Amino acid sequence: MLDATLATIVADDILHAKWLNTLSFMENAGAKKISASEHKEKVNLIILKHAAEEHRHAYYLKKQISKINPESCPTYANAELLSPANTKYYLHALDIAVCRYLKEKFNLSGYDLKFAAYLFVTYAIEVRADELYPIYQDILDRSNSKVNVKSIILEEEGHLEEMIKQLATFSKDWKQYADDVIAIEQALFQNWTKDLATEIG
Fold first, then answer.
1. What is the pLDDT along the chain (201 residues), one digit of tens a residue?
2. Contact residues for 59 (Cβ-Cβ < 8 A; gap 6+)
3. Rounded (10°) angle between helices 174-200 and 110-142
């Protein structure tokens, strides 16, 4: 279903610009979530790098819109996003659900809970990015589009490796908990893609 939806989006300049803007919004929201999870003092290099790269992805995707229409989607207003309600709900809902899950499993609170949520939410998002961006790039290639997300694909792969290393130090059983978090993300993502498919008709 995702392939067909993305093919329809890429074939229409208005939808494609909104799609890039939607991805940019999500990358920006992710960067802000990472920054919000930071400790006041204990901030390591990986967290800074990751937040900076997510912000850069948001900028890069926004800039790609000019290859379609320089006047299109100047802001993140609802009218300039695809499935705006679900888009704005998705990451926030994932964060809340994962915090609830980790609180129950590890009895965490305060900064410890924030940091654990950062690890697991980011892992789930990177797994999703590793699936979504290559599908999108494949459709861009087949459409001979000027838009390109290859640099993002490479960086997201690196992020995933970094998150796995951090999760392994958090818990030796990290994978079983990560699988539960992936299931939470999948349900939210399916709702979002269904809404997207309905919107573009």
1. 889 999 999 999 999 999 999 999 999 999 998 888 777 888 788 888 888 999 999 999 999 999 999 999 999 999 999 999 999 999 999 999 999 999 999 999 998 999 999 999 999 999 999 999 999 999 999 999 999 999 999 988 888 888 999 999 999 999 999 999 999 999 999 999 999 999 998
2. 24
3. 50
Q: Spell out the SS3 assignment of the chain.
A: CHHHHHHHHHCCHHHHHHHHHHHHHHHHHHHHHHHHCCCCCCCCHHHHHHHHHHHHHHHHHHHHHHHCCCCCCCCCCHHHCCCHHHHHHHHHHHHHHHHHHHHHHHCCCHHHHHHHHHHHHHHHHHHHHHHHHHHHHHHHHHCCCCCCCHHHHHHHHHHHHHHHHHHHHHCCCHHHHHHHHHHHHHHHHHHHHHHHHHHHC
Cβ within 8 Å of residue 20, ≥6 positions away: 61, 62, 64, 65, 68, 73, 147
Query: Which residue, chain included where needed, has tokens 């300049």?
Result: 13
Structure-token pair, residue 82 = 């695809």
CA neighbor of 20 nearest in space, from 174, 143, 176, 28:
28
